[in-house]
Amino acid sequence: MISFVTLLDYLGTFAFAISGIRLASMKRFDWFGAYVVGLVTAIGGGTIRDVLLDATPFWMIQPSYLIWTGIALLFVILFSKYLIRLNNTFFMFDTIGLALFVVVGFEKTLSFGFPYWVAVMMGTATGAAGGVIRDILINEEPLIFRKEIYAMACVIGGLVYALFDFMGFDTTFTQIAAAIGVMATRIIAVKYHICLPVLSSDEDIEKASKDK
Amino acid sequence: MISFVTLLDYLGTFAFAISGIRLASMKRFDWFGAYVVGLVTAIGGGTIRDVLLDATPFWMIQPSYLIWTGIALLFVILFSKYLIRLNNTFFMFDTIGLALFVVVGFEKTLSFGFPYWVAVMMGTATGAAGGVIRDILINEEPLIFRKEIYAMACVIGGLVYALFDFMGFDTTFTQIAAAIGVMATRIIAVKYHICLPVLSSDEDIEKASKDK
Amino acid sequence: MISFVTLLDYLGTFAFAISGIRLASMKRFDWFGAYVVGLVTAIGGGTIRDVLLDATPFWMIQPSYLIWTGIALLFVILFSKYLIRLNNTFFMFDTIGLALFVVVGFEKTLSFGFPYWVAVMMGTATGAAGGVIRDILINEEPLIFRKEIYAMACVIGGLVYALFDFMGFDTTFTQIAAAIGVMATRIIAVKYHICLPVLSSDEDIEKASKDK
Question: What is the mean pLDDT of the segment spanning B73-92?
């Protein structure tokens, strides 16, 4: 029997891959291209983490990530009509996957002997960098730099992990608290349309002063 | 005297670099920019492979890849007028290089103790990822995700290698068979305009249902 | 007390981060996005160098780079109105940082036992690759491939280092000479609008021959 954590990992991989494949389909990529974009969305963040930690990339040790991306591709090919109706389901899977990826990335970084602040960065990279590479591959500005508190949810989850771990709480409890931190932040941000402020550029200011 | 494989390696590097430099020239990059794009096209795939395998990147050990990219730049500067007429020649060089890169990538991955499925991925990355980085650098959607069976030829070559190796064939024979697998797939795909199916997006479906 | 080199490192990090954050603000990225783009501009080149050298990325060992990027973000948020007037100051900081990064990258590569030509490449990557990743993230064609002798200044600084080191000069003297090589090349190139030639593309030539 597979463990509960493995099940969440599969769910998250599936949801991340779906998000990549759907964006690839809007760009009229072929099946291979869509598969690669889906795969990179699912494993890109963890791969960057593992390369920086000098660990063997996690997906080179067991093939489940490739298989779940394949299932995601098949799913999009067969059921593309019904996907929009499933948006809320995918959002939940994606949020669960995000929380798990952050916790896994945080934990792995600590186990390599790095301090909390590196673990917060690596947890965030594990959760959010796959989406950035996805957007680079489809030649769009990365979504997470402009919309929703997606990466910030990872940072907050990482800070919760660091705080609870520092205070000496039990590991399982700490991990669950961090995961809830990620999920709660994201769900609240989406529900109440909370965004980070946008940087105003020099140009805006010049325009504004001309209007006076 | 240099070996036959080294000669093919030079040919492939030259052809990959030419493809990068020509695309860079359409974007009006300067000589340095064109050189970098050419170099990345030639060595990008193998570099990703070596970073993931935790090996020293192959081009850091001997400078021939830098030199051949320099020759390719000089060639484009001097003979840009005649390049279009040489398209078929470049296509052959490029296909030979692709086949060699796939075989080299597959073999190296096996020698690091990874299973066949990782080797298929690394062979494909060695052959096709350089072109993806090239397209990212010139700010275009990666060509291989939409056109021609380019990356699929790498996958097929890798599968041939895995099959023949698994059946216990001689290494040299296996390598030649895999290389022929890559070249035959690509040449047939280009000659008969064989493409992978394109993913239809949610938008298309919405439009189609409105038209009814 | 911090050393002089550390001070230059802070200056350079600050200037590189500012350049990333300002470009991100023109794309209307939010604060988090701007921070990431600023950070990647400052640490991207050195990270690529360290991954290729198989070293632990330098910024994972001490947090000053994250902190200086944070200060740069705060600076842009608070003083965005006055930034244009500071362009010359930033140019000087940026040029000092570039020189330092090239020297540090060159030295580190030599210390890993690689030959001069690898060190020239790594010095250039340390100085110039962060800007390339920045431009990829904001979805623009990399600036250094088309404008100014930016990366070439790194190459020239690296060649100076190699020459002086080969001739047996004192390390400190060699480093200062290389840094001056970078700074002088860049300042002269900007002052006298010196550019590398642009590659003419096949299309231009076709057009030119039609016009006849």
Answer: 87
C30: three-class secondary structure by DSSP: strand
Residue A45's pLDDT band, with cuts at 50, 70 and 90, is very high
Each residue of C38-52: pLDDT tens digit? 999 999 999 999 999
Is the backbone of residue A139 left (phi > 0), alpha (psi -120 to 50) or beta? left
Confidence band (pLDDT; 50, 70, 90) for C6?
A: confident
The reply to whether residue B25 touches residue C114, judged by beta carbons under 8 angstroms, is no
- Looking at the complex, report in whole angstroms how far the Cα of residue B204 sits from the nearest Cα belonging to chain C: 26
CA distances from C25 to A136, A143, A193, C76 (A): 18, 15, 21, 9
Q: Which chains sit next to C, with 3 or more Cβ pairs under 8 A? A: A, B
Q: What is the pLDDT of residue B177?
A: 96
- From residue A38, give the alpha-carbon distance in Å to each of A71, A89, A135, B87, C10: 11, 18, 11, 33, 39
- Cβ-based neighbour number of residue A158 at 10 Å: 28
Question: Which structural domain range is residue A63 located in?
Answer: 4-194
- The more confident residue out of B129 and C198 is B129
ipTM: 0.89
Provide CB contacts within 8 A for A35, sequence distance 6+. Answer: A21, A69, A70, A73
Q: Is residue B69 a contact partner of residue B35, using CB atoms and an 8 Å limit?
A: yes
Q: Is the pTM of this model over 0.95?
A: no
Cα distance between residue C186 and residue B146, in whole Å: 40
Compare CB distances from B34 to C51, C139, C199 and report the shortest one's residue: C199
Any chains having at least 3 CB pairs less than 8 A from chain B are A, C
Q: Which amino acid is at B157?
A: G
Question: Kind and range of the H or E element at A193?
Answer: none
For residues A149 and A194, give the distance between their C-alpha atoms in angstroms, rounded to a whole number: 7
Distance from the C110 Cα atom to the nearest Cα atom in chain A, whole angstroms: 21
**Residue A67 Cα to chain centre, angstroms:** 19
* Cβ–Cβ contact B31 with C under 8 A: yes
Count up the domains in chain B and report the number.
1
Q: Find where tokens 């064989």 sit.
A: B194
In a domain, A204, yes or no: no
Q: How far is the alpha carbon of B58 from chain C, nearest alpha carbon, in Å?
A: 10
Q: Which residues are within 8 A (CB) of C187 and not within 5 positions of it... i.e. 6 or more apart?
A: C95
**A66 to chain B: nearest residue by CA?**
B117
**C43 reaches A (C-beta below 8 A):** no
Query: Cβ separation of A118 and C60 shorter than 8 Å?
Result: yes
- C206 domain-assigned: no
Give the angle C130-C124-B64 at the CA atoms, nearest 5°.
120
List the structure tokens of A86: 């499933």
Q: Side chain identity at A184, as an amino acid letter? A: A
**Which candidate in B47, B120, B122, B145 is best for mutational testing of the A interface (most A CBs within 10 A)?**
B145
CB A123 within 8 A of CB A106: yes
CA angle C138, A195, A173 (to 5 degrees): 105
List the beta bridge partners of residue C53.
Answer: none
Distance CA B208, CA B59 (A): 51
Q: Would residue C24 count as lying in a domain?
A: yes
Please check whether residue B202 lies inside any domain of the structure: no
Q: Does C170 touch chain B (CB under 8 A)?
A: no
